[in-house]
Amino acid sequence: MPKINATDRDGTQLEIDADPGLSLMLNLRDKGGLDIASICGGMCSCATCHVYVDPAWMDKLEPQSPDEFELVEFSPHYKDTSRLSCQIEMSEDLDGIKVTLAPED
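Above: the chain sequence. Below: its structure as tokens.
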């Protein structure tokens, strides 16, 4: 079972046992109890699941789609490591991934 090392908006750090095959968003919200609105339900249309991925993990992720990039780049909290957690599928290859929830827009 892959682990997620997550930092909440208040700085609380958690280690979450993730379910492979589910999105990072679902694991953060449902397994970790983090406050992720996920208004669109993971359809890549709202950016309420915005996270910062630790730079060491960026090359291990699938590339962003143009739609995902457009959503995060217009956030006032955009960084080079911004991703939508609904667009990252958890797998054993991501065991130990480090992410931080972005501030809410």
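The chain is about 15% helix and 20% strand.
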